[in-house]
Structures are given as C-alpha cells and as structure tokens.
Amino acid sequence: MATPRQVAANRRNATLPRGPLSPDASAAISQNAVKHGLTAKHIVLKHEDYADYQELHASIVMEYQPRTPQEHRYADQIAQNYWRLLRCRRVETATFENRLAALKDRLEVDPADQAKDDQGISICMANDHRDFDLLRRYETSIERAWHRAIRELRAAQKERRANEAADLHEQTPAKSSKPQLEDTLAERRFSVATRTNEPNVSEIGIGCVW
C-alpha cells in the first residue's frame, strides 16, 4: 500500500505538464508488449500450448479490468500462478498414473484392469509418499501466491478508486451556503404582509367594550 506521502507525490506528478516523448522513450514504450510476451514464454513450457495461456491471461484481464501498470503486473501474477497450478495438477495426475502402471507391471496385473486401481493408488502413495508430499507442498505454495496476487490487485484497485474519488471531490466546486437573493426577498415580503394583516391591539380592545 502506498503511504500518504507517496499518494500526494503521485497527485502532484499527475498535474505536471507532459510534452512530446523523446525517440528513446517512445522506443522503450513500444517494447512493452514484447517484454510481456517474453515473460509469458518463460512461464509456458515447450510442450504446453502458448495459445491456451494467452486465452487464460485475456480472461483474467477481462474479469479484473486492470488500469494502471501495477494492476497489470498483479493480473500477470494471477495468470502465471494459475497456469502453474494447472500444471501442478496435471503432474499429480501423471505421477499417479506412472506409479500405478509401474505397480501393475511389477505385480503382473493387466494394465486395462481398473477394478482395483484405488487400492493400487493407495499403495503408491504409501510407498512414494515423499514424492506426493512434495507435490502437495508445491501446489499449496502456488495457491498462496495466486490468492496473494488477487488480494494485492483488489487492494490496488480500491486505493486507485479512492484516490480518483478524492480528486473528483477536490475538483468539484463547493456549494454556497448563502440563500439566493430571490428567496430572501420573497421571505421578507411574506413577513411584512403577515404583520400588516395582524389586528391592532387597541382595535381588539374597543371591539370588546359593550
């Protein structure tokens, strides 16, 4: 979270005039998409489908609607960690299948016979519990990073909306507490007319004498 001093500095910087970008700055900005692509390529392994990762990333951007560069970085982290989480679950499935196939081969059981696969999996987990424990720890670590990125993104968006609301409030002119001139004059005329129509005390007294 940004400190109050950082928020104030950001607001001051936002009001500074911005002239045309230099050629070097324009060239650096034009490479942002390439850098994001290279990051994605480091996440997606060679045997994985890069188009699937792009689709996942696009769905996360569409859902969370990041606007600032920091929000986009958090969205990238969400996509990357979820992609790793999917990979971890595929690896877990493949580990079960490999251990089960090896067990059937050792016990000379027909690989197509699935009647006792659950018992075979329990034997595999007992014999190779360290491998499965490592997978579970790996999956837990990824899930924590995934949830943390979601929390950070939501916190950044909440802070941005609060700053935008504060800026809008500062830019909105305050309403005057003084009554309008027409309303004041109308109230005075009504007050004078009311006093004129009130009966005179002396007239009331005379009228009451028999």
State the main characteristics.
210 residues; mainly alpha; 9 helices; elongated
Radius of gyration: 37 Å
Derived from helix and strand composition plus strand pairing, the structural class reads mainly alpha
Task: Write down the secondary-structure element order.
Answer: HHHHHHHHH
In whole angstroms, the N-to-C terminal distance is 88 Å
Tell me, rounded to a whole number, the average pLDDT.
Answer: 75
3D shape: elongated
Number of extended strands: 0
Q: Major sheet: size, sense and barrel closure?
A: none
Helix amount, in percent? over 70%
| Individual helix count | 9
* Low-pLDDT segments, ≥5 res: 13-19, 28-38
Proportion in β-strands: under 5%
Oligomer: single chain
Q: Can you characterise this structure?
A:
- The structure is a single chain.
- With 210 residues, this protein is an all-alpha fold.
- The protein has a domain at 33-160.
- 78% of the residues lie in helices and 0% in strands.
- The chain contains nine helices and no strands.
- α4 (50-64) crosses α5 (69-107) and α5 packs antiparallel against α7.
- The protein is elongated, with a radius of gyration of 37 Å.
- The chain starts with a helix and ends with a helix.
- The model is unreliable at 13-19 and 28-38 (pLDDT under 50).
